[in-house]
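Researcher: Good morning. I'm working through a list of sequences from a screen, and I'd like to move beyond sequence-only analysis. For each chain I'm collecting a predicted structure so we can compare shapes side by side. This is the next one on the list. No need for commentary yet; just the structure.
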Amino acid sequence: MAPRVLTCALTCALTVLGASGLLVDPPRLLGELKLANAAFVEVYTAQRGEGDDVARKTLYVSSFNPGNIIGDDKVYYLRAPGRQLAPVAEWDMKVLDHHADWTNDICYTPPEAVGFEGVTVTSGFLVPFKTHGKLQVFNTEVEPPAGPYLLTTLDTKDWAYHRALWHDMDGDGDLDLSTARFHQNSITGHITKSFAYMTNDGVNPADSGRWHQVEVIADGPDVGFRWLKLPSGGKTYDVLLGGEFWNERLTVYWTEDGDWSNPENVQSRIVDDTTGQVFDVFYDDLNGDGVPEVWASCFDLPNKNGSLYKWTIPDDFINGDWERTTLDTNFHPNSMLFGETMSPGSAIIFHPSDAARDAGNKPLILLSGDDDGNQYILQPVSQDPADWTYARQTLVETGGTTAGQVTADDIDGDGYTELITAGYTVGKVYVFTYAP
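Model: Good morning. Structure tokens for this chain:
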């Protein structure tokens, strides 16, 4: 089914919205790429390397196939996609990896972490033959990329990994690999949640047996998380923001001195335990007032209803009130014969153009409907920082059960943003642009 670009749900595009101005025209479709089981998409701009920003951008796409029980799932990459926009259908995606089962987020690895710039591929899920997840690092400074360097050789059970962020956990100056993970007992079905890190002792990542593991939080963050700096009592803390899928809550964790190596020193506060399942959490300035908000995509399983929430962070994140606002709701997933479904999913903020960002306009939100099979654009209906009303546009109706991750970047350097989205069930990658 061809994607359909639709007008917004609250009002028609380019309808006058009072003194605040106009809604932005939907982007135009540049093309579609057929890519089986396309799931997660990311674009990273390398700090190192030759050429301009356009030349140093790389598109990554991960995939997973529950029916592929005898082979591993592939991760693809494409250098300088902005130089190859005509036509998108002929993109020659290279295989980065085929050594992992059920590949998920592709996370950036900075050069100060392991001596080279690259990506960390996460993997693993609950379905049979896909439970043994991994954290694999690739050196993308060379072509083809070198790796994988496996940092989870010391796992004692089959963990599913969805995110891995480099962060100094023990105060020694080296960036360790922090991660949220979960494991399901094959007999009882019990889910074990764990937030841990792989200790970076300054060794080569190829020496995988020396990346020892420290579990920081048991029964806490399991899928989505972010690192923040937040104030309380005149002091700024190193804060872990956890979107706890299985516990159905939003939580913050911190230590007094920023050292996470001793789990007994970790303190926590439940921000909201009425969220439902938290698909992912984010930290961005949504209303253009210069102060970031916490926001999350969540799903109320009993009522089969998904929502996008934001929380205003108090001046004292430990003791103050976190005010929640609903940005959008009434997302309803498709049903599957086996397993639960949910909606919405991944998201990212963006400005349609450099000019819109430079003018100080509020960002738009690109949102995956995940198991409703669609992808959306949420537009603020005014530039008033106190107005949290959004107009929903359906960007793509994939026609399949599940859509994939979304991302936004000016990949060709023309000052206009491109949107790249995955259609998992239909096996496609869609590329849109706001350029005239």
